[in-house]
Each structure stands twice: as C-alpha cells, then as structure tokens.
Specification:
Elements (H helix, E strand, L loop, with lengths): L6 H10 L9 H12 L4 E2 L4 E2 L7 H8 L2 E2 L2 H11 L5 H4 L3 E5 L1 H9 L4 E7 L8 H17 L3 E5 L1 H7 L4 H16 L8 E5 H4 L2 H11 L4 H8 L7 H5 L1 H5 L18 E7 L3 H10 L9 E5 L27 H11 L8 H7 L7 H9 L3 H13 L4 H24 L3 H8 L10
Parallel strand pairs: 5-6, 5-8, 6-7, 8-9
Antiparallel strand pairs: 1-2, 3-4, 4-9
Helix pairs in contact: 4-6, 8-9, 9-21, 12-15, 16-20, 18-20
GO cellular component, one term: cytoplasm
InterPro entries: aa-tRNA-synth_I_CS (IPR001412), aa-tRNA-synth_Ic (IPR002305), Rossmann-like_a/b/a_fold (IPR014729), Trp-tRNA-ligase (IPR002306)
Protein name: Tryptophan--tRNA ligase, cytoplasmic
C-alpha cells in the first residue's frame, strides 16, 4: 500500500489489525494491511473505488464528517428563494453539505455569498456527468441571485495528464464554451483559467495556504505518496484559493469576509477539508459545500466513465442516432432475462442505469414515480424505459448543442475578462 495511503483507508485497516503482533515479519503485516484495505472504499479527487464497485454514501458521509441534506433543508431553500427546489435536491443527488445552514442563515438575514465551482479541462467534449455541477450551479445562481467564479484548472491537467500546456489552454477555452452554453449570466459570472489568471492576490492566498499545510497533511487527506511528483503537492493551494474572496480583488474589494458556497461532487471534499482547516488560520471564513453523488457509467456503477471508451457515457456532441445506439446497447438493465420472468418479478431498480439516468434528467416527478412503479412491478419493459430515456437525453443534448453553437470566442473573452461585476448581487 505504501506510506501515502489515504487516511480513510489506513484508519479502518489499523483498527482491524491485531496490534499485539510484536515480532511478526513486516512483509506479513503489509500483506494483512493489503487484504483489509481491499475491503475499504477509497474516494479522493484522483481515485474512486469500492470493493463491489458501488459507493456506500452513508459510510462516506461518516468518514468525511460532512452532513446529510434532509427534507428540511430542501424546503428551506425553496422557501428562501421562492423557487421550486431543483430536482437534484428533491431526489437526493446533491445529498451532503458542510455548513450549508450557515449560508442559509446569513442569506435569510440579508447577507449575500458567492458561488465557486470548477472543471479540469482534459477532453474535447464533456459528457453528461460533467454537466451535473454546472446545471445545479446555474440553478443556485438564478435562485439566490449571487455571483459565481468558475475555475478551469488547465495547470492541473498538465500535471496529471500527458498533455502539453498549449493543449491544456485550448481545451480550457473549448470547455468554457460548453459551460457558458449552460446559460450562466455574464453579469454575475467570472470564468478564469489558472494558467492565465494566477498571480497577484490569488497567488498570495495560495502561499498563505501552502505555508500552513504539511506534507503529512496531504498524505492523510489526499493520499499523496512519496512517488508522486511535486506538482501534486503544489496544486492543492491553487484549488483552495478561489474559496477566499480576496483572491478576486476586481470582484470583491474590501469584502474579505464574504462567504463562499461550493457545489461539487463529493470526491472533491478532501481539497476543501484542507481549505476549511486553513481558512481561520489566515483570517478567512470557511467555505461551505454542497456535494453530489457520482454519475454512473452506462455499464453501471461498478464501471468508470472513460474518455478512452466513448460507449461508457453520453457526450454533449453525440447525435440522436448515437444516443439511441448507446442506450439500447450499453445501458445496464435491471430487467429480467425474459419477458415472462420480468412480468412476474419486475425490475431491480437499484442497478438499472436507465432509471438512474431518468432520476437525473427527467423533470416530472409524477412521471418518474409512475415509470419506477410500473417497471418495478413488471408492467413496463426495459425497452419502454430505454425509449423514454432516449427521448429525454436526445432533447437535452440537442438543446445544449444549439446553445453551444451560439457561443463565440468573443463571448468566452467576455466571461473571462478581469472586470468588476456591478450588478452581481442585483
């Protein structure tokens, strides 16, 4: 396993080992650690794995120390914003948080906050899973009427991927077009790439963070190992800095205590546990988080979506024909092996990918409940569920493609311009 194994793996391993094994050869103890660790799930920004391929989110909440989003929080958001709660909230897709109630308390008292999210631009095209945080962040921006900063970590992708700096910078602009196509308000949104923006006050905050995080901290929180290149050690402060308003003096001058809310997938939580630990030490507020489940590959939760396997995901560049073919051929079904058996015992919704995708993208709660009921009871067949999913995804992707086609280079420049946003709280 090595000295850099993540704390969330090592602690349960050590608890399960017999601590009285004095004099036992080290090789034997290491083998025991490996066997116990194999039964543990690992969730870091760079690795997500579980023994059976299915993440135990309850266990993850306990391990990370975040809190569940309950019905009271969902209702409160709807009440405060006078907007219906987003389906990602209603259905528990964004399911965990850190200090979200504090943000809501301040908002109710008349104080504002800003949003921060990001994207690591490593591919020409986004898949639907990449859209999830941006779809939800747009809802938050519209509902709360607050500003947003979007970080494109082109530097990170240079460090982690076999890409040139020039390609990382180009991919960042291409990905920015897909992000803009989600409908963000240019008067409330600042998009930046690290390779273009980092410096000045932003870099000063990076240094403040870096000085207060030890190598052992990174080993414990992020699973950094001695074999990792030093870029992995130097990058975490870059992702931390946008959590602090003073990193953006053109946006928030004199407002260094403005609160920040970060929508993200839960694998990014380790970065922000580090950030929240450091924030009070350098005189800033801790950022709040609202965190989502993972979006499954077409082949099921035990399979990872991969750019090297275009059939593992639906991409925003896919044609209706490609979407239909992928869903029909690759979307893992919880239906039974024969029509007769399916009519008798119904579908297993827990493993059915078309149902999972409809849970993400079908807006109508009543229709979703009807499909689940009929499918589970065997009245509806897999082919019918897949047909409905194909229609939903085809419409979503076509709408995105139309919006993306309208995004010009000048629009990208406008979102990325370092400028004040006078109407960002208006």
């Amino acid at each position: 396993m090595g000295a850099g194994a993540p704390r969330q793996v090592m602690e349960p391993v050590l608890r399960q080992l017999d601590t009285s094994l004095v004099g036992v050869p080290a090789a034997y103890i290491e083998e025991e650690i490996e066997e116990v660790a194999a039964a543990e799930q690992v969730v870091t920004p760079w690795e997500v794995s579980a023994p059976d391929g299915v993440i135990d989110y309850d266990k993850l909440v306990d391990q990370f120390g975040c809190q569940r989003i309950d019905a009271a929080i969902v209702d409160r958001i709807a009440h405060l914003t006078l907007c219906p709660a987003h389906r990602f909230l209603r259905r528990g897709i964004f399911f965990a948080h850190r200090d979200l109630n504090r943000i809501l308390d301040l908002y109710e008292a008349g104080e504002k906050f800003y949003l921060y999210t990001g994207r690591g631009p490593s591919s020409e095209s986004l898949h639907l899973g990449h859209l999830i945080p941006f779809m939800f962040t747009k809802y938050l921006q519209d509902a709360f009427k607050v500003p947003l900063v979007i970080q494109l970590t082109d530097d990170e992708k240079f460090l982690w991927k076999n890409l040139t700096i020039a390609k990382c910078k180009r991919l960042a602009r291409e990905n920015a077009k897909d992000i803009i196509a989600c409908g963000f308000d240019v008067e409330r949104t600042f998009i930046f790439t690290d390779l273009n923006y980092v410096g000045g006050a932003f870099y000063e905050n990076m240094l403040e963070v870096a000085k207060r995080v030890t190598y052992n901290n990174l080993r414990g929180i992020l699973g950094i190992t001695p074999e990792d290149h030093i870029g992995k050690v130097s990058f975490p402060p870059v992702q931390a800095a946008p959590s602090f308003p003073s990193s953006f003096p053109h946006l928030f001058p004199g407002n260094e205590q403005l609160r920040c809310l970060i929508p993200c997938a839960i694998d990014q939580d380790p970065y922000f546990r580090m950030t929240r630990d450091v924030a009070p030490k350098i005189g800033f507020q801790k950022p709040s988080l609202i965190e989502s489940r993972f979006f499954p590959a077409l082949q099921g939760e035990s399979t990872k979506m991969s750019a090297s396997d275009p059939n593992s995901a639906i991409y925003v560049t896919d044609s209706p024909k490609q979407i239909k073919a992928k869903v029909n051929k690759y979307a893992f079904s919880g239906g039974q092996a024969s029509v007769e058996l399916h009519r008798k015992i119904g579908a297993n919704l827990d493993v059915d990918v078309p149902i999972k995708y409809l849970n993400f993208f079908l807006e109508d709660d009543d229709e979703l409940d009807y499909i689940k009921k009929e499918y589970k009871e065997g009245s509806m067949l897999t082919g019918e569920v897949k047909q409905r999913l194909i229609a939903v995804l085809s419409e979503l992707v076509a709408r995105h493609q139309r919006a993306r086609a309208q995004v010009t280079e000048e629009m990208v420049d406008a979102f990325m311009a370092v400028r004040p946003l006078p109407n960002m709280f208006g």
